[in-house]
Design a protein that fits this description.
This is Proteolipid protein 2. Keywords: Membrane, Transmembrane, Transmembrane helix. It comes from Phrynosoma platyrhinos (Desert horned lizard). This protein has about 150 residues and is mainly alpha-helical. The chain has one domain. The protein contains five helices and no strands. Helix 1 packs antiparallel against helix 2, helix 1 runs parallel beside helix 4 and helix 2 runs parallel beside helix 5. The protein starts with a helix and ends in an 18-residue tail after the last helix. About 10% of the residues are buried. About 5% of the residues have low confidence.
Length: about 150
């Protein structure tokens, strides 16, 4: 039974977090490509396209936070790589745009989004820790060997 619990921890830590990391980077790259399409094919200004993309990222973060903490908690409880990837991407945006220290709307939205992501990540870590102590998913169920067969 101990081998099964260790195996689940390894799968959760390596495979699920790896897939979550890849999916997050792919999502950010898709949003970046969407920004490029808005600028060159949609004839939107650079600032407008950037603000739209940052708002899409914000909505995705809030929706994912709700889904992973309330609907899919049992399945993705130990996935913790989504928010550090977003934090890293937003830090890259801030570093790239902070050379001129301008107060453009996109820089302000990026800074606010970075703070919100850090707060959400802190809440997520607290919830995972609290739920792990309260209801550990690694503990075996009492009816794990019981099979319910339909009665004819």
């Amino acid at each position: 039974m101990l081998k099964i619990m260790i195996y689940y921890a390894e799968v959760s830590a390596l495979v699920q977090n790896g897939i979550a990391l890849y999916a997050t980077w792919t999502t950010i790259a898709t949003i970046l490509n969407f920004t490029i399409v808005l600028i060159y094919n949609g004839y939107a200004s650079n600032v407008t396209a950037t603000i739209i993309s940052l708002c899409i990222l914000f909505v995705e973060l809030i929706v994912w936070f709700y889904l992973e903490n309330f609907l899919f908690d049992k399945y993705v409880r130990y996935n913790l790589t989504v928010y550090p990837v977003v934090i890293l991407a937003l830090c890259g945006i801030m570093q790239k745009n902070s050379i001129d220290f301008s107060s453009k709307a996109s820089n302000i939205i990026t800074a606010v989004l970075l703070v919100v992501t850090c707060v959400i990540f802190s809440i997520r870590l607290g919830l995972v820790t609290w739920r792990h102590k309260k209801e550990n998913l690694d503990e075996p169920c009492s009816d794990i060997n019981t099979v319910n067969l339909p009665v004819s």
